[in-house]
Design brief:
It contains 4 helices and 2 strands; from the N terminus they run ββαααα. The protein is mainly alpha-helical. The protein has one domain. Strands 1-2 form a two-stranded antiparallel sheet. α1 runs antiparallel to α3. The protein is elongated.
């Protein structure tokens, strides 16, 4: 059974499977995107015109996005001093 936000109940198994697969795929691609962002901190600093406050805010946002998806952040310090 699938319940919509307005409380309607449906027994549409294929629809539920589609929603489940799309959420998992979106989550993996999102994690990959944000993880990649952390490997390119030198490019992010350039994008922020070397403005440290904006850079820190963006890095904190990336970390928040990964943590909200229960992803560990192990390589931040290595990438921070790269380049």
């Amino acid at each position: 059974m699938v319940m919509s936000t307005c409380g309607e109940v449906s027994k549409d198994g294929p629809l539920f499977l589609h929603i489940l697969i799309s959420r998992v795929a979106d989550n993996r691609s999102t994690i990959s995107y944000y993880s990649h962002q952390l490997t390119c901190l030198d490019q992010l600093m350039t994008k922020m015109n070397y403005y440290i406050t904006a850079f820190n805010d963006e890095v904190q946002n990336i970390i928040y996005q990964l943590q909200s998806r229960v992803e560990s952040i192990l390589h931040l310090m290595v990438n921070l001093f790269k380049g």
